[in-house]
Amino acid sequence: MGEDDSIERMNKFIVELGIDGIEKLKKNESNVEEKQINLSKLEQFLDLPFYSHWKASIKLQNKSSNNSPTLSAFTLSFVYYNVSDWQIRINLMQQWRSIASRHSKNLNLSVWVWEENSLFVDQMLSLGSTTFQSFVLTLGCMSLVCLLFMPSLFSLLIASASICSISIGVFGFLSCFGFDLDPVTMAATLMSIGLSVDFVSHVIYHFRQNVCYKFHKCSSSPSGFIEQCIPLTNKKDKLKYTLESVGWPMLQAGISTMLCILPLALINKYSPTVFVYAVIFVCSLGLLHGLVFLPCLLCNLPIWCNSQQNNFFGFFSNFGKFQVYELDMTTIEERKEQRN
């Protein structure tokens, strides 16, 4: 572009940006003409030691007929301050890109926006959809694992709904405590989906059992124990068996996990803090679901919904069942004596 054309387009661009001072120049055309830049002296200006650093921001081509260089590209810098919130940065970047796109079409300029945090801004803009897709895929994988061991449609739906409930609770509490959606919180929330499976699957699996096996001491048995098969015919028996089997271990696991993660809270960094909050929330909500909500829900469903015989396909019909044999408590020395 030539000298006059460059200055005219530059003035239009800056006026539309709303920068102070340009409107005053536009009111008086004579003053604008007197204060126009003489591009013929631009090369001399850039050769001065105090201004030579501007050469990196300007690209010149061959001189035109009026002995002035042709300006082919330049960098226009703007500064903003007191902006620490990422949402404000994202809004600013979107506004700049909108302005650049509009002027590229209207003024026939190739305007590009660069900012040192633009990579993270693009990441933030795509983080919502990425997190949702990852959440759905992770939930699908966890549901598939539950399906292999609990081949029941009702058990699968209850397990998936419980995992979703715990995960959404973790999302909500992290948001209430001031954490925004970023790569760290996304990783922490996806981790919470995997942790929540333990609090859900064991309760549903044990509640589906139709019989339980207990061992009693018996002096007449070679092993010293005898096996007793107890049928679970009603919801009360199923609930008692479930809480006796997994209630105390689940409580121990949840509390110990929270205690193990607490030392990370002493590190005054963002990432460890996010993981501390996420683990505490998922363990608390997991214990609440596993020991309170799920037992209440399972007890209020019809008995056939939680029966081990309620399998919706036959290939995995034996997955939810197990056989317990009489334990051999004899030691290695006793076995050797019996052989001799």
TrEMBL record:
Query: What main location does UniProt list?
Result: membrane
- Which SUPFAM superfamilies does this one have? Multidrug efflux transporter AcrB transmembrane domain (SSF82866)
UniProt topology in membrane: Multi-pass membrane protein
Q: Which domain of life is it from?
A: Eukaryota
The membrane-spanning stretches of this chain are 132-150, 156-177, 184-205, 246-267, 274-294
List GO terms (cellular component aspect). Answer: cytoplasmic vesicle membrane; plasma membrane
Q: Where in the cell is it found?
A: Cell membrane
UniProt xrefs under InterPro entries: Patched_domain-protein, SecD_SecF_C
> What are its GO biological-process terms?
endocytosis; molting cycle, collagen and cuticulin-based cuticle
Residue span, Protein export membrane protein SecD/SecF C-terminal domain: 126-198
Which family does the entry's similarity section mention?
A: Belongs to the patched family.
Please state what the protein is called.
Answer: Protein export membrane protein SecD/SecF C-terminal domain-containing protein
Organism name: Meloidogyne enterolobii (Root-knot nematode worm)
Q: What taxonomic ancestry is recorded? A: Eukaryota, Metazoa, Ecdysozoa, Nematoda, Chromadorea
